[in-house]
Design goal:
This protein is of the alpha/beta class. The chain has helices at residues 11-22, 91-99, 105-133, 144-152, 157-170, 179-192, 220-234, 249-262, 272-281, 300-313, 328-338, 360-367, 389-397; strands at residues 4-8, 27-34, 48-54, 208-213, 239-243, 266-268, 287-291, 317-323, 345-349, 371-375, 384-386. It is elongated and about 110 Å long.
């Protein structure tokens, strides 16, 4: 027995293929609708109808002959029964007789809409189950306002959900309804994750070498000028400047201008040998601040070159300078790349330019580096302060603004 299978976008087209290939005497053995993934059902042309037919099976054919006799047709068995007077030249009538006897276009449309709604409900149920399986519990209604504030502060969604759940666990139930109290609890949780190194500490009689590194455009040179001015003018320390940023002439001239104004010795070095000579000439100083050229975190050659200079200088501290206006993922990747040069602390600049500070929280978690200073402007020697966890956490959530 030879059985052939035909597939087409609709039942009418599949039956037409059977009739064209096997003739009107072919017996239709079965029909079925082939569906792809649930999400693909909404794409036109994805669904297909499969019809199996044969000329060797002795069962009444479900295909109408092209020429019907005047005598009434014998009833087909069970679901394959045809209407008493099918239109021989309209395949759609035959298709309707095979699939849904006595059906109407409106009933077909209603059935299709119901099928699509059922599919949509199933898809939404799957998404809910996937969300719960991924460890993303729903935000409690009483803390939804806090959740939106964390998102507005540019804290990533996953961390915001985590903080909301921790607030729910730690905060007494009767206090959860007070938005200010819930927000304060969240601020204290953020504060606990912010480690600080404190300002640069100098010991009388001991020289300290502090280098600032980071990508281009984050404000390293201006930050060095602020630090130098504060230690020289306010703490009356002997300070010297060394720059290895010979790639940008403007950077050298900018730092030289600051050195002349504050009356500080300054050396420009371009080789490890010059670094040794510059350090030897500044042996009697309390603090040497080293400015380095901005490096792309993706340029491994330049990063290794920077590491060689820092090794030659025997830097006591290496502060990574990052702009707070950068995205969370950019900050984390940059800190990871610069870790190879031996970074010991973080300096965050342009706090005043950031629309939100929540992007700093993933950096705190991933880098493990403590904060040393924050800068919030271009004024020298002002607009720089030692980092404080509570103040930064409150600034992230906009507490005590104004």
């Amino acid at each position: 027995m030879e059985i052939k299978t035909y597939r087409a976008p609709s039942l009418q087209e599949a039956l037409a293929m059977v009739r064209a290939d096997l003739g009107p005497d072919a017996a239709v053995l079965h029909t079925r609708e082939i569906r792809g993934h649930r999400l693909l059902r909404w794409i036109p042309g994805v669904r297909k109808v499969e019809v199996a037919a044969s000329l060797d099976v002795n069962v009444p054919s479900r295909l109408p002959r092209r020429e019907q006799s005047s005598a009434p047709a014998a009833p087909a068995p069970e679901a394959y029964q045809r209407p008493s007077s099918p239109a021989p030249t309209r395949p759609a009538t035959a298709a309707a007789a095979v699939a849904r006897p006595q059906s109407t276009p409106s009933r077909d449309l209603s059935s299709e809409l119901k099928s699509q709604l059922d599919d949509l409900q199933a898809m939404l149920a799957d998404l809910c189950r996937q969300s719960q399986a991924a460890g993303r519990p729903d935000v409690p209604q009483e803390l939804f306002h806090l959740f939106t504030e964390l998102i507005d502060a540019e804290i990533p969604e996953e961390i915001a959900r985590e903080l909301v759940q921790r607030v729910r666990q730690d905060c007494p139930p009767e206090e959860l309804m007070d938005p200010a109290v819930a927000k304060a609890y969240a601020a204290r949780l953020i504060e606990s994750e912010i480690a600080v190194a404190g300002p640069i500490q100098l010991t009388p009689g001991q020289r300290r070498v502090v280098a600032l590194v980071g990508p281009t455009g984050v404000g390293k040179t201006t930050t060095i000028a602020k630090l130098a001015a504060n230690f020289r003018l306010r703490e009356r320390r002997k300070v010297g400047l060394i720059t290895v940023d010979t790639y940008r002439i403007a950077a050298v001239e900018q730092l030289r201008t600051y050195a002349d104004i504050i009356n500080l010795p300054m050396k420009v070095v371009s080789t490890p040998r010059e670094m040794r000579e510059a350090l030897a000439q500044m042996a009697d100083l309390d603090l040497i601040l080293m400015d380095t050229a901005g490096r792309s975190p993706r340029d491994e050659v330049k990063i290794h070159e920077l590491k060689a200079f820092l090794t030659e200088a025997q830097a006591d501290e290496v502060h990574l300078v990052l702009s707070s206006v950068a995205g969370a993922s950019t900050l984390s990747r940059t800190a990871e790349r610069f870790a190879t040069v031996g970074t010991t602390a973080l300096i965050l600049t342009k706090i005043d330019e950031a629309t939100g500070l929540g992007n700093l929280l993933p950096l705190m978690r991933s880098s493990g580096l403590p904060l040393s200073y924050l800068t919030d402007g271009q004024n020298v020697p002002d607009d720089i302060q030692a980092a404080h966890p509570a103040a930064l956490a409150d600034a992230m959530l906009g507490i005590n603004e104004g």
